[in-house]
Amino acid sequence: MLNLWFHVTVNLLTVNIIRNGKELIIVDLEMLDGLFDG
Length: 38
Fold this sequence. Notes:
By secondary structure, this protein is mainly α.
């Protein structure tokens, strides 16, 4: 299950890089850190 979420998240991050640049990526990574800590 965690593997599935990992792949989905990577795909979403890639889309964000293409569309919006690096600023949103930093926010997404901070949210990811919170998810994995929990």
